[in-house]
Amino acid sequence: MGFLLAIIETWDGSGGSGPDLLDVILDGTSIFSETFDTQDFGADQSYSPAPNVLLSPKSDRGFGFVNNTDDGYDMRLEPRFHNIPHTGRTAVIQWKAGGAGLEPTGNESWAIDNVTVTLGTIPEPGTLTLLTVAFPLVTFLGFATLRRRDRGRGRPF
Length: 157
What we know:
Blueprint: E1 2-9, E2 21-26, E3 29-35, E4 54-59, E5 70-74, E6 93-98, E7 108-116, H1 125-152
Antiparallel strand pairs: 1-5, 1-7, 2-3, 2-6, 4-5
């Protein structure tokens, strides 16, 4: 899973008038729960971005509410959103902002964009067994057929 994340305006992180918390929830289970701080260059936030995740620290991204201190993150590069185990036929993904210190959206807001969900497939156990047994057998029979055909023509194999 991946997405672009904007933390907008005066998020206070874990201290101050915080916590200001962002949660990502998959099928009712939190897979990401971190505080963000746009005021003190992340000094008070629990989230420590992986390399290249933080795109634009403390910059005016054009939202223009109060202090123009916005942070942009490329969460497609966040390892916690890679290879998330999931076996259900459906998935419900929720993004929630909260915490005792989160102020109204005119002062502390957030946005996501370019959400991607990539599904991987894992063969069922029966398929794996069939491949494990069939591949060596087919390979052996293929070589035996080639050898027999080459002997008939007088060429060594």
